[in-house]
Design brief:
heterodimer; A: 76 residues; mainly beta; five-stranded mixed β-barrel; 50% strand; B: 386 residues; alpha/beta; nine-stranded mixed sheet; two-stranded antiparallel sheet; globular
Chain lengths: 76, 386
């Protein structure tokens, strides 16, 4: 599901989110960063990073880019 | 299935035990357990070990015979079980199933984790491996982040507050201050908990369980033979293990752990009991929100009322249904692989009336709930005075 969503830009709504301050070793340089679960308009959910403005539950978002296999979404 | 009893328990202290290696911890718990059960190594017919990530944390594989051999237990099946934070709960479930089925009589179930020899970012990375590394893990999720997202959604749907989550931490630290084997025996205030360093918004460091070293062990036997070993057997009234999807984004509703609901139903049915019969419980408070959800999933309160339940003092040591009298994972510590069996030890200690300063008066039926990862494994065990 995630690979398909990464390849095909889509939009959705924030189901839940958090801002991570204590990151795993390979992402320490990125912290703090926002992670969210997006309910995709085409159905299903996807765990993605958020670029740009912070988002909250219910916000509409769209696919922004793929960075090293990580889907990034941004506020619509 | 024939009835099974716990005939002995043994635990190390939980903490940052810098001068201790994984094997010495597991051996200490196992030897204390054998002494308590009055069982010699040659009487142990099988060894079940729960361990989450020994190979990653300390570079040691083949752990079950490695530990059993060091205790003088050789020649019998010795097997490691991995189910993230429910590793030793899972080991117990399978051991009880085997004894219940008549495969063995005297079986030891251990659990161990040695975590503090790694840096916190490395521990965070290893723990993240209990999630879906192709999805949430790749995107940079940590375990606190997964539970933070669960908390956010629970707050959104049910109005759960940060104060209610902090109340879990305050209660568990107070209980842990009365437990000589707890990792952090420090009483904290609500204000301190709310002002803690942010780990994954809305969870502060006080909402998160501890990175600990430690081990625990229990000895089980058929109830009909328990009297040969101990004058104080504790009966396993019900036990169930269930599973669910690993990735959070593959669950319909993340404000409940379906595996816990199902394991609870099965364990209640096996015991012939309902939630209202449970006098006290040790639940899996890997994060404060997890204890709130556990109260709901186990049927102690209606969905959405778990926060209020804690805030109103219903689960305090002197409340109507004490939860985590040991201090829970929050204060007692969370050496991941030891946690499930550690919870069983704590319930048994309460039922035997040996909990000292934290002893509760209504102690005849207790429940332990062990959760793996963000809910893909659940083990619920109900114990009662034999």
């Amino acid at each position: 599901m995630s690979e398909e969503a990464t390849a095909n830009p889509r939009s959705g709504v924030i189901y839940t989110e958090t801002v991570i301050y204590a990151a795993p070793e390979q992402f320490v340089a990125d912290a703090p960063y926002q992670l969210a679960i997006v309910t995709l308009n085409g159905g299903g959910r996807l765990t993605a990073r958020i670029s740009g403005d912070r988002v909250a539950i219910g916000d509409a978002v769209e696919f922004a880019e793929d960075r090293n296999g990580i889907p990034f979404f941004r506020k619509k | 299935m024939r009835p099974v009893a716990v005939i002995g328990v043994g635990k190390t202290a939980f903490g940052a035990l810098q001068d201790r290696d994984l094997r010495s911890l597991a051996v200490e718990a196992g030897e204390k357990c054998m002494k308590d059960a009055r069982v010699s190594p040659s009487q142990v017919e099988a060894f079940y070990l729960g361990n989450f990530a020994g190979p990653s944390f300390v570079g040691q594989n083949h752990l079950a015979p490695y530990i059993a051999g060091a205790m003088g237990i050789t020649g019998v099946p010795a097997t490691r079980f991995e189910a993230a934070c429910a590793s030793s709960g899972s080991a117990l479930f399978h051991a009880v199933s085997a004894v219940g089925a008549g495969l063995y009589d005297v079986v030891m179930v251990g659990g161990v984790e040695k975590m503090t020899s790694q840096s916190t970012p490395k521990v965070t990375e290893i723990l993240a491996g209990a999630g879906d590394m192709l999805g949430e893990g790749r995107a940079g999720a940590t375990f606190p982040a997964l539970f933070a997202m669960i908390a956010r959604r629970h707050m959104y749907q049910y109005g759960t507050t940060r104060e209610q989550m902090a109340a879990v931490a305050v209660k568990n630290h107070l209980n842990g201050s009365k437990n000589p084997q707890a990792h952090m025996r420090k009483v904290i205030t609500l204000e301190q908990a709310l002002a803690g360093k942010m780990i994954a918004d809305p969870l502060t460091v006080y909402d998160c369980s501890l990175i600990s070293d430690g081990a625990a062990a229990v000895m089980i036997a058929p109830l009909e033979r328990a009297g040969e070993f101990t004058g104080k057997p504790v009966k396993i009234l019900g036990i169930a293990q269930t599973s669910d999807m690993v990735a959070l984004d593959e669950k319909d509703d993340i404000t409940t752990f379906r595996a816990v609901v199902e394991a609870g139903k099965k364990a209640y049915k096996m015991a012939g009991l309902s939630p209202r019969d449970i006098e006290f419980a040790e639940v899996h408070d890997c994060f404060t929100i997890a204890e709130i959800i556990a109260g709901e999933d186990l049927g102690f309160v209606q969905k959405g009322e778990g926060g209020l339940y804690v805030q109103q003092g219903c689960t305090a040591l002197n409340g109507p249904r004490p939860i985590n009298t040991s201090g829970g994972l929050k204060s007692k510590g969370h050496p991941v692989g030891a946690t499930g069996v550690g919870q069983i030890c704590d319930v048994v200690i309460q039922i035997r009336g040996e909990a000292g300063e934290r002893q509760i008066p209504r102690n005849s039926i207790g429940l332990a709930q062990n959760l793996g990862g963000s809910g893909a494994t659940a083990v619920v065990t109900i114990l009662g005075a034999a």
